[in-house]
Amino acid sequence: MTHSTNTDQENCIFCKIVAGEIAASKVYEDDETIAFLDIQPVNPGHTLVIPKDHFENIYTTPVMTWMRVQMTAQKVALAVKHATDADGVNIYMNNEAAAGQVVPHTHVHIIPRYNDDNLTLWHGTAYKDPEEMESFADKISTELKTEN
Ligand code: 5GP
Ligand code: ZN
C-alpha cells in the first residue's frame, strides 16, 4: 500500500508525537521535520528523523520533503556521533513490512556505532555469474527510464 488515509494518520504514533499528543525525547525540530530518540535503541542515542506530515514510506514522500528529512538527518548524524562519542553512524530506513518497517510513517534511523559493539549487519552474497548481475542492472535501469 502506498497511499495514506486520514484514518492512517489518526492512528499513527509518529503523527501523535508531532502533535504533542504523546511524549518523545525530541532533539531537533524545524518547520518540516523533527528528530527524537528511538524508544528502543540499538545503541543509546539512536535517533529517528521524520517529516511532520504523514507519508507512509519513501515511495510516497514528496521529493522536497525527502530532501528536508535528509538535511535534518545529516545535521543529526554529526550531533549524535559527537554526543555519544561514537566511532561511526549507521543511517538506514525500512520500507514496507518485508523490510522491517513497523511504523508506517516515513522515518530514518540514525544509529551510533562503536568499534567493539559486535553488531553485525547482514552479509552480501556473490551473484551466480556476471550475467545474473547484468540482468538486475538492466531491469533496474529500465524501470528508471520508464518512471514518470
Ligand atoms: P521501523 O521498524 O518501523 O523502521 O522502526 C520503528 C522504530 O520506532 C522502532 O525502532 C521503535 O523502537 C520506534 N518506536 C516505536 N514506537 C515508538 C514510540 O512510541 N516512541 C518512540 N520514541 N519510538 C518508537
Ligand atoms: Zn504519521
Characterization of the model:
This protein is α+β, with helices and mostly antiparallel strands and 148 residues long. The protein has one domain (6-117): HIT family, subunit A. Helices cover 34% and strands 17% of the residues. The protein has helices spanning 6-10, 13-18, 63-84, 130-146, and strands spanning 26-29, 33-37, 47-51, 88-92, 108-113. Zinc ion is lined by residues 9, 12, 14-15, 54, 105.
Any key phrases for this structure?
148 residues, alpha+beta, HIT family, subunit A, binds guanosine-5'-monophosphate, binds zinc ion
Q: How are the SSEs placed, and which strands pair?
A:
Blueprint: H1 6-10, H2 13-18, E1 26-29, E2 33-37, E3 47-51, H3 63-84, E4 88-92, E5 108-113, H4 130-146
Antiparallel strand pairs: 1-2, 2-3, 3-5, 4-5
Guanosine-5'-monophosphate is lined by residues 13, 24, 36-40, 94, 100-103.
Bound molecules: guanosine-5'-monophosphate, zinc ion
How far do the termini sit from each other?
Answer: 19 Å
CATH fold group: HIT family, subunit A
| Highest-level CATH class | Alpha Beta
CATH superfamily: HIT-like
- Reading the helices and strands in chain order gives HHEEEHEEH
Which percent bin holds the helix content?
25-40%
Structural domains: how many:
1
Shape: globular
E-strand count: 5
- Using the 3D structure, state the CATH architecture: 2-Layer Sandwich
Percentage beta strand: 15-25%
Average pLDDT figure: 94
Category by helix and strand content: alpha+beta
Main β-sheet description: 5 strands, antiparallel
Strand arrangement across the biggest beta sheet: 1-2-3-5-4
